[in-house]
Structure formats: structure tokens, C-alpha cells
Specification:
mainly alpha, two-stranded antiparallel sheet, 35 helices, globular
Amino acid sequence: MPDGTWAPRSRLLPTIFRKKPVKTVENLFQRSVVSTSDKELDITSDINSEAHDVIEPTQEKKCTTGIFQYPSRDNLKQFFAEHPFQPRLSVPNRIHHHLYMALVTTDVLARTWLCTNRQQPMCEMFINISKEKVLKQRSIVMRIIDIIKMLGKQAVSFRSHRNESAYTLDDEASNHGNFLASVQLMAKYDTIIAAHVSAVQKKSYQRMKRLKHQGKAGNKGRGGLITYLSKTTVNRLIHIMKTMIQERISHEVFEAKYYSIQVDSTQDNTIIDQFSIIIRYVHKSIVYERLLSIVPCNDGTGQGLFNLLTEKLQHLNIDPKNCISDSTDGAASYHGEYNGLQSKLANMADQHVHIWCYAHVLNLVVTETTKCCVSAVSFFNLLQNLATFINGSYKRMSVWIGVVEKQLGQEKMKRLKLIGETRWSGKSNAATTIFGHFNDPTASTFVNLLTCLSMIQDSDKFDAKTKHEATYLLQSLQKFETILTAFTYLYIFETTAPLSSYLQTNCLDMFTAWSLVDTATTKLMEQKRTFHNVHSKAFEFVTICNDMISMINMDENQTLEIDSIETALPVKRQRKKKRMADEVTNDEGNSSDPLADFRITVFNLIMDRIVQSLQSRFIHHKQLYKDLSWLDPANFKIIAEKGLDDIALDGVVKFFPLIKRGNVKLELVSFASNFDILKLLLQISESEDDSSSCKTCRTCPSCVLKILSSNRLHDKAYDNLYELYKIVSTLSVTQVQCERTFSKLKIIKNRLRNTLSEENLENFMFLSIEKQMLDDLDAEEIINRYAQASKGLKRLLIYS
């Protein structure tokens, strides 16, 4: 230590800074050194007199802070670490140890050696040190929060089964889990995290060594070290984030007032029925569909689901009576007219409408159409058997990969798709993979599949059973009836596949959904008797494939010979029926022309079935759509020219009695007349700040809301019309957001994480699904809530 300096020993700190009552600043810094009475000092007068001789009086110092709390030991250690050396005159060498102890024990706060200089009060110095320490601790937790957000959005696991102790972090060969591995990675490039990890690792190693010396090593329990890296801290932070997201959703729903819900349930891999609740509302003229909760359901009846739903809504301070619609699938517990969930909601809320999910309805229509005749069932069974046969063996798959790489290249590698009953696009994907699209037959793998089956059929590497299956599948594919059936469904999928894809989009509005369904129905009705289009496309496809097969057979390096595809239907023996004596009509189905027979018994039957199914299943809300069609911007030109009918909007106003019918009509006619000009103003405003939720049109209800709000027309000019558009935009026509939730559920709660508690599962679901709201959370607020968990955290993370 340099000459002329002195530093107190660390063992003297508890004595120097013992706990004392709170003092005011005026009493804290007195002009006289000995500020306490002889009675308080409780030492001899000789010691007092010697103290007056050796210690210089300090000047009076005042601090803006009114009350000074004694600092903690950690703060003192940090102070002495930063200021180890003090002036020599403050503590002369001739003061004996017992005299020094007596002096510093009585009124240590008045001693000059505690100040870096005589101009800075000690209380300010300790306050600054405390703030610096809190800022450092908060910066560490802030980085931990960023890591949690990143892992939560990726839906990956956080912890490992072992090697989670802090003293093992230097072992890079061990698997510490995604969270600790991310901390280690950040520590390589961030000095704050690096210093924190190093300090935590050292303390953890010392504690482990001490416990091992005491014979307690290996005992599990609370470690007593605040490291911010434990699973308790991570789970608490994740729960705080989920709670803040739910609070924000609840606040936005409260401001929107009206909302609709989407509900569905599914079983996870531990056979627990998970009930998903999605809420749809309009906030600041933007439509949102948010995950509200996902909870286990033990009562699948309509009343049980209703009780679970209302309990969750009330827990989040959301009024169940403001639910104006619900969207579910066709299960009896949801769709039941008397005891289903929708009937319970309708009885509770006066303004409520139940909508059977359009995407589910369309899936049922396609399913009915693919099972309406023997040819249809045989075709889709063939597609399923082909995918199962190729994907069921690595030897057969290697043959398929070799054929595709040789003929199409590695970049165009395609695999045969299995038909999943729960996947809405499964049938169309399986058919288009093999046969291509209706108007583009060249983008198919049909010839590749024939080549693969022929190679398996002629190869000696496969057993007789496999060769037999390959022969059967090959012969089925080479039939012209199979090609005609395939192009019949490709003709249908050309219309239904885009509709199905659109019905699976987020925040779908009722106008667009219904218009697309109506357009698809009209188009299929026009195509009901256009078999010649299907036949010409099928014949063109067969011609192209036969040319490709001829080129393969003519290849000198190719020893394989593939049979050509049939170009016509085989003539079947007519079945004679017994006639009555006076019967003169001929049965149209028993035509001698096989092509005409296929048109009647297969094509017409399939087309009639899909049109009839579309018309019958989507008729439930046709009247409601007719009433709401006056609000469709596509009809604004007619309204501006001819006005509204007397009965226009009557059904809507009856459904929402709080809205005045006369005022709405006047506002709608005025708005329709000025819509073209207002639409341009929206485009100009969005060019400056592109924050609109719709990027493709200016004619949907969402855009109308943006037009009204951006020009401040919703305050007085069109206030009733704005409320009506808010209600229309709130109506939910699908519940596909629940299906997306279930897809995320299977990713999070997989077979390796099947012991997740229900609380942690919901927390991880929110982090993974509501990514935007997670990014918008205030990290400072998260830290403030986390600090309330214990007094130790509050001391470290909150400014005193």
C-alpha cells in the first residue's frame, strides 16, 4: 500500500456501519467532529480529548436529500473497492487500534475518511453507487428477457435435463439447454453478461465446494444465489410476459366493447383435451384475432364448455354479454341447437349469431364429393395406396428419388402426399402432385411414377409381394378411366382450392368470404355439363405422357420398357334389363358409348353433388348476408345512383337495436356518394405511413374503417355507420385460428416435453403465437413486476 494512505479492513465493515436509526442530513454532517454526547460515545474523556487533537473539523455539508438510509454491506464493499485509499491526515498513525474502534463505532458518518473529497456529501455518493448497481442489475435482466423472447417466439425448449448448475457453465462439451446456451453465446460478445456469468459461476463453485465439505453436496433445493439464470426466474419472467399480454388484450377488448369468439378443442399427446379460445375485435379501426387462453377441458358438454368460457372471460374482466358472435365447427357440443355452446351464448346475449366455420363447411363439401360414387372412392384410394407404397420402404423410396433426380433434377424433388382426413388441402395436394394442374398438365410426376413402378416390377431386389403391388398400381394408373376421374377432380379443385386457402387467412371479413363462396358455387354450376373440357384435357395429358414414355423406351441406355397409357375407355358388355310389355324408353345409363356412360354416371354425379352440397350447407346465413350486402363497398355505386330501398338494413338494425336505422341510412348514402374521393385520401395517408392492416384493396370493411378513422369522420359525421362497420368486421366466419393454435400446441408439447404443466404450456403458447405483442412489451415494466417477487430482488432491481 502506498505511503500516506490507509484503507479499512473488510472485517471492520460490520462494526463501522452498524445499523442505526434514520438521521436527517442536517444532523448527519455537523461542523464539529464529535457530534454525539459523551453518554452516547460511552468512552473515557481521555479518548475524547485525544480524538479532538488528531481529527480536523469538517466544513458543514448539506444534501438535497432529506432522509439518508444507511447503505447495505454490498454497497459498502463496492464503495471501498472503488475508493480504497484515504488521506493520511484523516486517520493519523498514532491513533491506536482501540481508539480508532471507539471513534468509528460511535459516529462514523461524520468522519472525513468516508468521503472521496470534502466537497461531496457521503449520502450523494452512496446514492450514486446504489443507482449504478441497480442499473447494472437491470441491464443484466433486460438481456435475459431478450433471450427469453427469442426462444419463446421459436417455440423451442428452454431447459436441459441436467448440467444446469452455474459452476458447469465453463464446460462447453455439456448440453446446458437452449436458454443457458444462448446466455453463453451472448457472453462471448457482451461484456456485461460475460462479467455476470463469470461472477455467478465463481459463487456457485464456492457454494458447491462448501456444501461438499459439509457433506451436503447433491442436495436439491433453493441455492440462495440470485443469478437470474435459474428455471424459477425464467418461469416467473415468462408468466409475467403472458400476464401482460392478456392484460393488454383485455384492455383493447374493453375499448372495443363488442367482440366475437372462436373456440375448439383437441387432445394433446398426453390425452388431455385442450380448449382454445380466440377473441376477435376491432381496435383503432384494425381487426385483430388474438389467443385469449388455452385451458384443459374436463367437461365436453355444451354447458361445461359454456361454464369454462364464461369463467375465463370474467377472470380477464371481459363482459360475456358483449359477445356478438361465435364461430365453431359442426360438433354437437358446439353446434347443437338446444344444448350446444352456441345456444347457451345466444340465451345470455341478446345480439348474438352463431356461424358454422366456413372452412370446415367447405371441407365437408369436398369430402362428400370424393365419396359420392365408386370411381371417386377408387381414385382417392389409389392415391393413398401409391403414397403408402412408395413411402413405406427406404428401398422403394431410393428408387423414386433416383428416377426424379434423373428426369427432373434435385431442385424439383417431389414426394407423394398422403391424404389426411384432417388436412383440408390433402386431397387436392395428393392429386396435383401426380397429375399436375388442370390447365398445366406438364407440371406432373405421372411418368416418373410409372417409371418407378416399372423398375420395382422388373427388379430382382424386391420380393414377389412387392412386385405384385407395383404391378397392380401400375395397371390402375394406365387406365384412361383413372385419368378422366383425376381431371374431373382437378377441374373442381381449380375452383375450391383457392377458396379453401383464402378461408384459412387471418381476419377474414364476411363480405369477401360470402362473395367467394357464391362465386365458386356459380362457377361450378356453369361447369356442371362441360364434360368435353375435361375429356379434351385428359386426352391431351395422355398424349404428352405417351410421347414421354416412347422417348424413354427408345433410349439405348434404358433397358426398361413401359407400357403406354390407354387413350379410350374400354367397351363394357351391356347389361340387359327385363322390360315391361309396354315399355318403350331406353335407359340413358346403359349407353353403348362408354364415354357417354362415364359422363352420366361419374362426371354429372360428382358435379351435381358438389353444387348441391355448397348450396345446402352455406344457406344458413344467406339472409344475414343479404341484409349486410348494402354495406359492401362493391354496391356503393348503385347506392349513390339509386339510393336505398325501404327495407334496406332492416334486418341489421333489428339485429343491433342500439343503432338508429334512419341515421344509418342517411349516413350510408352520403358516404357512398363520397367514397371514391375518400378512398384516394386513404391511399395518400398510407403512402406517408404504411400502417394499414389491408394491403391489397380499398373495398373491404377493414379499409372502410380506416377511411372513416383516418379522416376523423367517425366522430360526428358517420358515427352510426362507423359503429355498424365495427360490428360487421367483428363477426367471425371461420375458426381457423384455433387450428393454428393446435398446430403450435403439437410443436410445443411434443413427446420430449410431455411433462409441461398447464400453466407453463399456456405461457409458452402465448410467447410463440402473439409474437408482435411480445415484442411490444416494455422490458422495464417486466423487471419492475419481477422485482416484487422478493425483498432481495427489490433491493437489487428497484431504485431506493
